[in-house]
Batch of 4 targets.
Target 1
Amino acid sequence: MGGEAERAKPVLFVTRRLPDAVEARARRDYDARLNADDEPLTPDRLRTGAAGADAVLCCPADRMDAAAIALLPERVGILATFSVGIDHIDMAAAHARGLCVTNTPDVLTDATADVAMLLILAAARRASEGERLLRRGAWTGWAPTQLTGTHIGGKRLAIVGMGRIGRAVARRAVAFGMSVHYTGRHRLPPELEMGAIYHPDPETLPAVADVLSFHCPATPQTHRWLNAARIDRLPPGAIVVNTARGAVVDDAALIAALRSGRIAAAGLDVYTNEPHLDPGYLTLENAVLLPHLGSATVETRNAMGFRALDNLDAFFAGRPVPHRIG
Ligand code: DGY
């Protein structure tokens, strides 16, 4: 937004602390209200922070439901989320209120796919169990039958949601010798499908899911996609990985299947009601649990922040907003 020094800078309320480089750019181009202490957003903080603001930059941990959107003063014209996911935003309420909503796609594809692969490997090879054994001083040395896991080469990876992230995971999995099956709203063209097998009927996917990995948004259609009935149709010893959103899994059903051994292991990065995940997961040796780290690299978080600012810049310059939703 250089060259506009004569105009007052738009007031930008930023709900959480952002990477230094992103905050520096926000400060340069906006009258930025930053959150140096990284306090979580509450209705009070939103009301106070957004008073007199032209824009809000929010994060996936902020509940921007209808009640929160109703707290935004009329003057706020844009809600730029520092995420690709938008399930924390009540889009109907935002649009009814005339808000421009933007997100940050593409830049977190590889980082998230890396964490999905990390979880596939960690769950298959019992990495967390091994580390816990070592840390509690219980490792007695190498033994032929100790902590034997599953070899992922030659296994079938079943992907729910073959968008950018799903495809990036598929590419990685193929390099590890896996074959890929997927379901989604549409079959991909061959250059994007890259040999993966499409299941137009999602109900045929569980039976081929040696590893089942979620890369779909949380929507009413994907809500609790993995339920007891679909778990019953997974091959014995299946592994479940979720780097998408907690809502796609029925926690009670997954925990019961992990407890009984019906599912060999799970690798989870996302949960319903974060950060208050179902405590049942914490007691399971065969669950690898990460605290929503999918996009957590310095490079990626910078790129997400810059993309959010690009959206804001375009909005205030009257240009088409690159990642406007709806
Ligand atoms: C997103 O952008 O939606 C991710 O979940 C953040 O890591």
Target 2
Amino acid sequence: MLDKKNILIGVTGGIAAYKVVEVASRLKKAGANVRVMMTRAATEFVSPRTFQEITGNAVFVEMFGDAAHFHVAHVALADFADLVLIAPATANFLAKAAHGIADDLLTTTILAFDKEILIAPSMNTKMYENPATQANLAILKARGVKILEPASGNLACGVVGKGRLPEPEEIFATIEKIFAPSTKALSGKKILVTAGGTVEAIDPVRYIGNRSSGRMGYEIAKSAVNAGAEVILISGKSELEPPNDLKFIKIESALQMREAVLKDFDSVDAVIMSAAVADYRVKNPAAQKIKKSADTLTLELVKNPDILKELGGLKNSQVLVGFAAETQNILEYANKKLVEKNLDFIVANDVTAEGAGFGVSTNIASIIWRGGNVENFPKMSKADLAEKIIERVASLLNNDKKFPAANVNQ
Ligand code: C5P
């Protein structure tokens, strides 16, 4: 995990500096490139030569003195590092760092560094608890600096209390954790989302369409990307910009959508079918534009395949989620679809309710689970509802399809 990571250790003038030799040694053994910079006071406790031997790299103390290896040492050191560890960090250092004072190589380097900083304070208990020190720590924390709390115990000054530098193993473990790849809820999972409305041609110019904006499905796709999934978004008609970091497939008709969905179905972990797929298409679309002549025009429609129902028949371990946009008897119709299409859950909404349905950015939905449990959500943005849907898909995929036990009102 730490292999080839560039770690810069700043050692300030505390008695615990000797423990940091062990930290440097562990980091080096774990494969990290370690460089050390010290304050002058720190060199009173540990010789730079010790760190130099341990890390195999020159140790930097003076701002202008020992810059033989680097042209502008503080900038070069800051550029080199993926992480800066300050250990032990004295009260003086905390005060300077909190206020942007740069009066030696170490504090100047910190100011030139914009990535992760981990500070391990170590000092006498009273100095640590002094409101000035606590205020400085609060400033640093608020800036996103990570603080490794000192341990309690016997201090070098003879008192027992808080202020001891944590043991090298703990400092090492904290650094490992910082570099651990973040495991997101859908990492390693592949999710197929459909969105928008299908377009069924009447002739080369006209079509039968619907009012779907695609917004719900696009938000679901974005949410799945944010949760770490590899996402395929198959979209019918929509004015929205395709979201980033996913495979985007544009289709027009229900038949094209069916083909695209079936092509990827075997390789995905879940399908969320939020597209408004036309139930019927024109049996024989005209090859040329239909001319205005007769007083009436009859279009013969044939039923489109129900894609989700087909997936319900084909599915093995995939999680299948459907949508039911209704105008009446919502729960009853939604439940019927859930069973017919062999879904894991269905998101139902009354498209006639204010703040729900087509075109608007909010939705009022219920989730009906296989087995009949219902979750009723209040009016929320489609982005928030998308997140709820993705959380539930992730929980099904990560918990071997355990469904919630009871009816829940969110
Ligand atoms: O039966 P109904 O069309 O109302 O079901 C809605 C759900 O089924 C939605 O998830 C929609 O995407 C999906 N559907 C489908 N193929 C169709 C019609 C709807 O997959 N032909």
Target 3
Amino acid sequence: MNKRFYLTTAIDYVNGAPHLGHAYEKVVADVIARARRSMGEEVFFLTGLDEHGQKVQQAAEAEGKDPQSYCDGLADQWQAFVQRLGLSNNDFIRTTEPRHKTIVTALLNRLHQEGHFYKAGYEGWYSVKEETFLTDKDQNPDGSWDPKWGEVIRLKEENWYFRMGEHKDWLIQYLEEHPEFVQPTTRRNEILGFLRSQPLGDLCISRPRARLSWGIPLPFDPEYVNYVWFDALTNYLTVPAIRGDVQAKAVELGQTATDFSAWPADLHVVGKDIVKFHAVYWPIMLKALGAPLPKTVLVHGWWQKDGQKLSKSTGNVVDPIAVINEWGLDAFRYYVVRELAIGPDGNWTDDGFRSRYNAELANGLGNLLNRALNMLNKYRSGIVPAPSRELAEDAATAVSTTAAYLKANELQEALVTIWGLVNRANLYVEQTAPFRLAKDPTQAARLDEVLYNLVEVCRILAVLLAPFMPQAAEKIWAQLNLPAGDLRWPLTAWGGLKAGHQVGAPQPLFPRKDLVPK
Ligand code: MSP
């Protein structure tokens, strides 16, 4: 049975509308999913919503709704968002679904029976907004609290704890022995530094119902619900388990084995703020369950706009849907992946977006396709001449370099490489000057060569670009009049266009916006 390449995104809180940060992460994951499929892997791509916990309960209360109907209302909007981003996810999990709750309950029971939990009392400062107890370190020297914590109260509570602290040593060793576990390296070093420099406490995995009712009940103590992060992280295992994953079955989830094999996850794509949950809590939870660990947690940075934090209250936001409505889905997907490498923080500027659109999409790629098809139609009635290999090597290098970057999740570098080929082909037009060759009948054979190389590069570019810009790739393919179908990686081999093939007419891929009257 083939193990699928299993990748996930963080599941978003449903306490508001989706924004640029959410969109970015999902697009990054989608490009990786599509690239892996293109290169012949079976992929399982999961995304979804994190619906329990205090944030959601409070947001529902603020609107005077019960949490479930509040979530149901927003879930429609978020699922429409996933469609709008063109995501190729294979499933969409909502943590309020029975399939999820059943498995979380089973896992809680198992860990409880096997002695991983204990009940204890605790008194401390508690941030209502962030749903977390604070330590002395979080307090300002004058005894006040940073406004980011919101209301801070003194709270005394009995709760259930997960014996997390005892796992610290093996986790450090695991991180040391598996450099690929947290990427990029800077994030791995952060986690290692955190683990080495301080004791790892046990994790409180319950909330008293009296304070928070919106969660999965602890099956062994009805006075409590499960801590939202325990519930949320488990989603990565829930979905393959319920689908009959053989590995997850080995973790005794009681499912029937099918031909579905996804666990362990190959890639969790997450933002920098939630690395600790994914690189510390989650592997320890899995270790306690005896489950194999995910291969890689890929950590991306955060977007700002105009050098400032994204914030609804100050209006410093980028609405991905508005951008997509105005510029098209592919332009949005291109910009976010091209502008920001996976790791550092990024800065959205409308000018930056516009200039990449015009320079790289309209003038770069769009113009190349337009010229190639235009000239072939004009000089050869759209009929592909005999194959020529003048740009074959440039194309082959671009293909293999792009493949290597894609496998290493270096998506920005992959796009830079692809644009190397776009620029090479545009330069080739300048150097060979087919418009001059066309005026000289003795140059007919040379013109054939040039025209072949140009349309063939366009064909290969469609395949390379398909994971990033699926719609533009299909449009290129359609304009080349090639049969619709999956643009898989083997189609990057030089010589796919055959002599005598009739191409279609050029249509602008990315209309130049500065020329379009408002
Ligand atoms: N519900 C948790 C994740 C649970 S995963 C088991 C959560 N949700 S969230 O809605 O707050 O964030 C979802 C993802 O969006 C996180 O990976 C987060 O880092 C990412 N982003 C939120 N704001 C962002 C930016 N401004 N820029 C880039 N990504 C950002 O955390």
Target 4
Amino acid sequence: MTQRDADAAPDATPQIPQRRVLVTEIPGPRSRELSSRRLRAVAQGVSSTVQTYVDAAAGAIVRDVDGNCLIDLGSGIAVTSIGHAAPALIEAVSEQVARFSHTCFMVAPYEGYVAVCEELAELTPGRHEKRSALFNSGAEAVENAVKIARHATGRQAVAVFDHAYHGRTNLTMALTAKNFPYKDRFGPFAPEVYRVPMSYPLRDPKGMTGEQAAARAIDQLSVQVGAENLACVLVEPIQGEGGFVVPAPGFLPTLASWCAEHGIIFVADEIQSGFARTGAWFACDHEGVVPDLVTTAKGIAGGLPLAAVTGRAELMDAVHVGGLGGTYGGNPVSCAGALAAIRTMRELDLPAAARRIEAQVRPRLDSMAKRHSGIAEVRGRGAMLAIELADPDGLRPDASSAQAIARACHAKGVIVLTCGTWGNVIRLLPPLVISGDLLDEGLDVLEQAAVDVLG
Ligand code: PLZ
């Protein structure tokens, strides 16, 4: 987008044509130039999925500095659900940044923060009295959920699951399951974190129900930790980085009711799965599960950094005055972005859009899985869908094919992401406003890449 475009009054049409256009090889010369500048300035610990540098983005298209237009099936890891450069977001954020960009809510409060907390109370599962606190990143929200659960219960232990991802800060590294690249040589990690098996239907014993998988986890927690020592059970209702693992039906409700019975706080990490992504406002809604605390981030603010902990008023308000906060948490520009994003999600009924995306994508992934025995499973919900690559007999994870397919998509101008404990899952997280045609074109490229790699 040129400066003139950015200055123009926002309208409903995206500023970049919603078409895939390749004008150079990917990455092109200007991207390659930036890559070499980067090598001398940016720490190599910070990596990027694609090697093409962004010039502008709108709707479901990312335009690079060489003029190539890529179809975005990743949404910056489930963030730009309302599409890039959504007009309502541009308007709200521009207006706010011109009015004031920061006072610090802990110093001088403002309406936007309160309004975001009101929206969170309205949209998150359950009709009980709720309170929220706002932060900058998902990891920070998760850390604060644990702080609140410990404070409210007077207990210390935290239960998490195999394949879980909760962040990269010290406590959240401890909560995250996968060593490399997240934790390797970054320890020591926070104590009082206990990991138990997740419900992972593809890899669990055949026929294991969600209730049985929950009982397996509950038994380990009872024996190894003791329910009376647990502050909280923290779970992603659909796992994100861990591989889009959807627990078997009954797993989440069984865990939630065991928590309720024993005074354990049930915390749902909806940072990746929340805000319309799975075809409901929150993934917990699919099974009518009402968590005590919910962490949100990513899709909440259309790309501005914002995160939240929302929960039962009595738990949230158990923390002493001044016990929660941070300089930027609930920054006014991020709050304006969130209010615009949430309004857009409501107006465009993006939960329904996510369901439509599933109806379009799932059959195509299913037919890919029929054709290629190396695709062991198609799973996910709404616009959070994935294929797991593994050999059909032993389910040995096939990361190299997953990476090769993803790279082939990137070279053809389609951004897809991988995930999974073994890096063998290709995940799709398109903006929920993507057109059916563009989505089909992205899937054509993915399908061809799978043929090229898997034969
Ligand atoms: N909880 C469920 O998905 C972030 C991380 C990518 P932050 N996932 C993307 C990476 O490699 O760093 C995430 C999540 C769930 C917590 C987080 C953490 O959110 O905003 O990245 O801190």
